[in-house]
Write a structure and sequence with these properties.
alpha/beta; binds magnesium ion; 60s Ribosomal Protein L30, Chain: A; Rossmann fold; single chain; binds guanosine-5'-triphosphate; 41% helix
């Protein structure tokens, strides 16, 4: 059996779709998808694990089943140090299962990075659940990267939803596949990404530029995307530049100055390059920020400020005595 040193796990529908994209982009790493739906991914790179919760599809039940499956996930990723858990938050499945799976893996000694996709603002009924799940992910993981569906990229308002998802999944898949790219000597190593993501609030923005001025255009778009998601200045950043292989020192300087100018970042801005045959540049900007606009979606926490209500990731999970090997006396 081939030995890998990282695993990427997609949880819920969005997580599963993104894993499918990743499976066409990278040839190493363990790829797993955890969901309760029957549709199968194309190809056979992703190992699909189906939770059977059809008759009782509640958050409680999903959590308990995810906890049980967590133990077998630990075996699946035996020997692997770095784990990435990607999921859309706001639905029932990913919001319930992702923090549990993250916690089980972290308790087994893994280094866990969460990539959490937040709903569009119009998905009103999902915002609170997503914000609560995000707080749980922050507790369960070593670090979390947040991506706001609505602000990650600029889309024409008439773009059909499935196309917008498709496009976002492509970008997110591209970004994740760069995290463990060891071929590019000017890349950013995964340890730096894990460290930045552990700094509190870490947000991802993306932008593309073409023609002369592509470096400035791509950076401006990525940075504006960051600003829409956070509102606050960036403290520190990692910038992944993908595409045009003849990027110059002048371009790098433009990227850093443009980024600093728009985000008022006073800390370090590290740039990594991932050249390919494209005649355009795509900039993925990852920034540590003081606050995000997603914090506003959780009014309870706003009132409580730093006091916790009940953010145990296992909260409201019913105890399955048989599973835990406890005998119940009647
Ligand atoms: N980027 C992206 N976001 C998605 C996609 N599908 C759903 N989302 C977003 O992710 C959030 C969670 O959606 P799902 O992943 O469908 O939810 P789930 O975890 O499967 O939960 P259930 O709805 O209970 O099945 C939604 O509010 C959407 O905003 C997708 O393919 N790509
Ligand atoms: Mg689903």
């Amino acid at each position: 059996m081939q030995k890998y040193d990282f695993a990427i796990i997609g949880v819920g529908t969005a997580g599963k779709r993104i894993l499918e994209k990743i499976s066409y982009k990278i040839s190493d790493g363990i790829l797993l998808a955890l969901d309760d739906t029957e549709w199968r991914l194309s190809g056979n790179r992703v190992k699909e694990i189906r939770l059977n919760v059809n008759f009782e599809r509640t958050s409680k039940k999903i959590k308990l089943e995810a906890y049980k499956v967590g133990k077998s996930l630990v075996e699946e990723v035996d020997g692997v140090r770095n784990i990435v858990i990607v999921s859309g938050l706001g639905g029932v499945f990913g919001s319930s299962a992702a923090p549990i799976v993250a916690n089980v893996l972290r308790e087994s000694g893994k280094r866990v990075l969460g990539i959490s996709i937040m709903p569009f603002k119009f998905e009103k009924s999902r915002l609170f659940r997503a914000a609560v799940a995000l707080r749980k992910m922050k507790i369960a993981c070593d670090g979390v990267i947040v991506i706001g569906n609505g602000e990650f990229i600029e889309k024409a308002p008439k773009t059909p939803l499935f196309k917008a998802y498709e496009l976002e999944n492509e970008w997110i898949g591209n970004f994740i596949s760069k995290l463990f790219d060891r071929e590019n000597i000017y890349g950013i190593n995964s340890g730096e990404t894990y460290r930045l993501a552990s700094e509190g609030n870490t947000v991802l923005g993306v932008g593309v530029g073409e023609g002369t001025g592509m470096a400035e255009e791509a950076t401006t778009r990525a940075t504006l995307s960051l600003r829409r998601q956070s509102g606050s200045d960036a403290r520190e950043a990692l910038v992944y530049v993908v595409g045009w292989k003849e990027i110059s020192l002048g371009d790098v300087s433009t990227i850093v100055t443009t980024f600093r100018g728009i985000t008022c970042c006073e800390g370090e801005i590290k740039v990594g390059y991932y050249p390919n045959g494209e005649r355009s540049l795509t900039v993925y900007a990852l920034a540590a920020v003081t606050e995000t606009k997603f914090d506003e979606w959780d009014p309870v926490q706003k009132i409580l400020k730093d006091r916790e209500l009940d953010f145990d990731v296992y909260a409201d999970m019913s105890v399955d005595c048989e599973f835990l090997g406890i005998k119940v006396l009647d």
